[in-house]
Amino acid sequence: MKNKALFYSVTLIFMVIAVTIVPEAKAAYPEKPIEIVVHSAPGGGSDLFARQVAMLLEKEGIVKQKINVVNRTGGGAAVAVNYLASKKGDPYVFMNVTTSPISALLRGATQIKFEDITLIAMLVEDVSLVFTRYDSPFKDMKSFIAEAKKFPDKFNVAVGTAGGTEHVSAYRLAKAADLKYNMTTFKGGGEAAVALLGGHVDISFGNINEQMGQIEAKKVRPLAVMTEKRISYLPDVPTLKEIGINVVFSQVRGFWAPQDFPSYAVKFWEDAFEKLSKTKGFRDQVNATQGVLDFRKHEEFRKYLIKYMADLDQDVKALELYKEKK
After folding, report:
1. What span, in angstroms and rounded, lies between the C-alpha atoms of 81 and 85?
2. E-strand stretches of 108-180
3. Which residues, 6 or more positions from 275, have their beta carbon under 8 angstroms from its beta carbon?
4. 3-state secondary structure of 55
5. Peptide bond preceding 33: is omega within 30 degrees of 0, i.e. cis?
6. What is the pTM of this model?
7. Considering its fold, how many domains does the chain have in total?
8. Last residue within a domain, chosen from 243, 263, 288
9. What would the pLDDT profile of 9-56 be if each residue is shown by its tens digit?
10. What is the rounded distance in angstroms from the CA atom of residue 294 to the CA atom of residue 229?
11. For a Cys-Cys bond, which of 26, 87, 163, 240 suits 93, CB 3.0-4.6 Å?
């Protein structure tokens, strides 16, 4: 009896220790550097956004550990998503989410599905822009559309990652306006913009934050925005709807994590991003990059993405990106 009582006593002690130690370990999270995976090349909107977020989280004292941004390009964001899949259960790795990795999931180019992803939070929506070189013969959207209708397949269009926002934007414009042009995809919006400035393509699509510097320097001319109404950042630039093209599209910016990302880690980062969204530094950054602040916690983010993906799925099918399915 004494041995049995001793056994139960020792067992109880270990159970108490386990209960007290685990919360402390979680409370100490994160205890080492964090890795944010970016699917696009350095210099693009996704890369710049992730680096600004990492910098501000550290600067505002919201996260005490170092946050490293790592670019893993290729496969229309499939390389980055597959890398994330390999980090199942790792609370120290997560990824930025935009249209490109969502498209990668939809077209079956990844080792995981949407159901395997752990959503953290959405922070911003970016306005999509149609633009050309400043010295281009096209001074407005109507003149480009008129010329493109006269000469199908004559004009070249630069878009960022295959299946990304720019690719979908170009497709939706072509469909709505009944246009035919040649689309060339790159590793990111930065490379697409270089192709435009180099005279290799006629127009391009991208986020305003990637092009505002070039617009102000009069190297790029904005032709139209893909919003319901004109935006304060470019008040003289019409919407596509204004000129009779019923197309609206925006870039979602948030973060998701690998499968089995611990619930305490989800809570930590959800809270961290919510705190970040309320800081003056982040709000100033959103304004500086011409974005729209739209913070959503993981459950609300999930509902938003389900609708977003349903619409995007039709675009992915039409672009025949499912040919990449494995």
Report:
1. 6
2. 118-133, 156-159
3. 60, 62
4. helix
5. no
6. 0.70
7. 2
8. 243
9. 444 444 444 444 444 346 689 999 999 999 988 887 789 899 999 999
10. 17
11. 87
